[in-house]
Amino acid sequence: MQQPQWTPSAERIAASRMDAFRRFANQRYGLQLADYPALHAWSVAQREAFWQAIVDFFEIRFHSPAQCVLREGPAMPDAQWFPGATLNFAEHLLRRRDGHPALVAIAEDGSREQLSYAQLAAHVAGLQRALRNAGVGIGDRVAAFMPNTWQTVVGMLASASLGATWSSCSPDFGTQGVIDRFGQIEPKVLIAAAGYRYAGKRIDLTDKLNEILPQLPSLERLVIVPYSRDEASPTDYKSVALTTLWQDFYQPGGAPQFTPVPFDQPLYILYSSGTTGVPKCIVHGTGGTLLQHVKELGLHTDLGADDTLFYYTTCGWMMWNWLVSGLALGATLVLYDGSPFHPEPTRLIDLIDAEDISIFGTSAKFIAALEKADVKPRESHKLPSLKAILSTGSPLAHESFEYIYREVKRDLCLSSISGGTDIVSCFALGNPTLPVWPGELQCKGLGMDVQVWDEQGQPLQGGKGELVCTRHFPSMPVGFWNDAGGEKFRAAYFDTFPGVWAHGDYAEETEHGGLVIHGRSDAVLNPGGVRIGTAEIYRQVEKVPQVLESVAIGQDWQGDVRVVLFVRLREGVTLDDALRDEICRIIRANTTPRHVPARIVQVADIPRTISGKIVELAVRNVVHGRPVKNTDALANPQALELYRDLAQLQS
Ligand SMILES: CC(=O)CC(=O)O
C-alpha cells in the first residue's frame, strides 16, 4: 500500500501557523473545525468569514474600513472584495523595523550584501522621496529591467508606498520582449541595471537599453543601477527621460510614508508568457495580492519571523513577487542573482547551509537536473535549518519526490505548488499539517474553491479533467491592461465554462485531498481520442538515465493524432534502437500503450520560456509548419529550428 513520504509530527502540527489559524477561526466563529479538510470546506463555504479572519489573523491594516467583505455580481468575474477599504501594500511589508536581516542579496561571484529591516525602510524612504519628487503618484507605472538584487525590492516597495503600479522584467528578456511589455503599460519611471552576471560572464546592457529606450516615449525618469558604483554614466543612455545613477537619485534615510489606496488599486502588472502573441498585461490588485500572499506564505508555507526564505527566481517571474511578500511575515529573504549551476551544480544547495535557509524554493526542472547531475546533498551538506522545499514551474515528478527524500533530507515538507502569473499565487500548494504523498500537491489553497471538471462542466470525483475555480477569490486579476470592457480578460479564463475560472491545467484530485497536475490543457495529447497529459510521459522518460529532458507533442497524422517525443540526451549519447526501445518499454510498463510515442527524435535543445517552461505549443506549431507568434518570449528561440521539416516525422 502507498505510504506518505513525510508525515508532520504532532509537535510540528501544533506549532504551525496553519493550526494556529484553525484554532483562531474556531474561537472567533464558535466552530469546531477539527482538521484541514474541515477548515478548507469552511473557508470556501464561508468565504466572507474566512477572508475577514485572514485580515484579522495577519493584522492587515485598512486606513478606511470596508463596507463589507464581498460584493458579488451575477457571475464571475464580477465581484468586489472589501469595497471601500484602503490600505498600502508596502506598509505591510515594512512592518518590521529592527536590525533583523530583511534581505541578503548574493551574486553569482559570491558577493553578498545585507540589509536589515531598519536599513530597508531607510532605503525605501529615500527612494520614495526621489520618486515623489519625480512626480510619481497613485496609478503611475514604475518599471524595472533588473536582476534579482536588493535594489529591485527597494524599487518595488518605494513604488507601492506611493500607490504606483510596479512591473518588472529580468535582463535576460530580449529587446522586443521588453518593448512588448513595457511599451503597453507606458511607465513614467524605469529602473534599469547597467549589466548583470550569468554563468561566469558579465553581460553589459547598455546596447540593449539603447534599443529599448526610444520605444518607451512615456518615460520621464531613467534610473541606472551600475554594476558597481564607478561604472556607467548617465550619458551612455539614449532616452528622452532625465537619466540618473541609482546612487545619485536618492539618499537613504527617514521613515517611509504610505499612501492608502483602494483595495483593488493596481499593484503589479505581470505578463502572460506571450508565446501566442503579444503578452497580455495582467493587472493585480493591492489587497487581493496581499491577503493571498500572507495566507500562502504564512499558513501554507509556515513562514515566520525567524525563517529564512529563498526562491530561485528572476524578477521576470511571478515567484519573485511571491517571494518578496515574505517581508510581510518578518522573514529574511535570500535573493540570488546568477546561474543556479555556476560554478557547479551545488551552488544553490551551498546557500542553504551558508545562509541557514529554512524554506528553499525552486523549480521542478531544477530538482530533476540536480538528480541527473547525481548531486547528493545529504552526503555533502548538513542542512540543519532546512524545513521545507517548494517546487513549481511544472509538475514535480514522483521520482523527484523520491530523490528529495532520499538524497536531500528525510525530515522536510516537500511542497509542489501551482497557480501562476494569472493569479500571482496558487490554487494548490503545501501544508505543514498534512502528509506529503508522492507526486501530489498537498492540498487546495484555503478560500479557493478548486475543482476538477470534465469537458461537459461536471465535477469529477476522480479522474483527469480541467482545473477550475468556481468562486471568486481576492487575487483574481483586476483585469488586463488596455482592456476596458474586460473582453480579453473574460475570453482568457471564462470562455470554457461561463462564470467559472478555467485555469488551463489538466489535473486530478486524489483520495488524500491533494491534486496531481498532468500538464497544460492546451498541450494535452489526444491519440485515438484518449486525453493524455504531457507530464504523464515526462515522468516516465525522466527515469531513463541517458535522457536529460524531453518534450512531447501530438502530431496530426492520417486523420488522428500520434504522440511524438523529442529527447535531449546526455553528452555523447546517441539515440539508437536500444534506447528507443528502453524509453518505450518504461512508458508502456507504467502507463498505457496509448502513451507510447509513435516517434522518438533526438534533439540538441528544447525551447523554453525565460522562466524555464518548455513550450510544447510552439514545438507543435513548428512541427506542423505553422508560425510561432512571438519568439521573444523564449530563452532559446533558435532551438525551434531543430524541429522544422524533420524527415523522421514525414512517415
Ligand atoms: C505558482 C506557479 O504556478 C508558478 C508557475 O509555474 O508559473
TrEMBL record:
Chain ranges of the AMP-binding enzyme C-terminal domain: 543-613
Q: Does the keyword Cell cycle apply?
A: no
Q: Which UniProt keywords apply?
A: ATP-binding, Ligase, Nucleotide-binding
Highest taxon listed in the record's lineage: Bacteria
Which InterPro entries does this one have?
A: Acac_CoA_synth (IPR005914), ACAS_N (IPR032387), AMP-bd_C (IPR025110), AMP-bd_C_sf (IPR045851), AMP-binding_CS (IPR020845), AMP-dep_synth/lig_dom (IPR000873), ANL_N_sf (IPR042099)
Which family is this sequence assigned to? Belongs to the ATP-dependent AMP-binding enzyme family.
In terms of NCBIfam families, this protein maps to:
ac_ac_CoA_syn (TIGR01217), PRK03584.1 (NF002937)
Entry protein name: Acetoacetyl-CoA synthetase
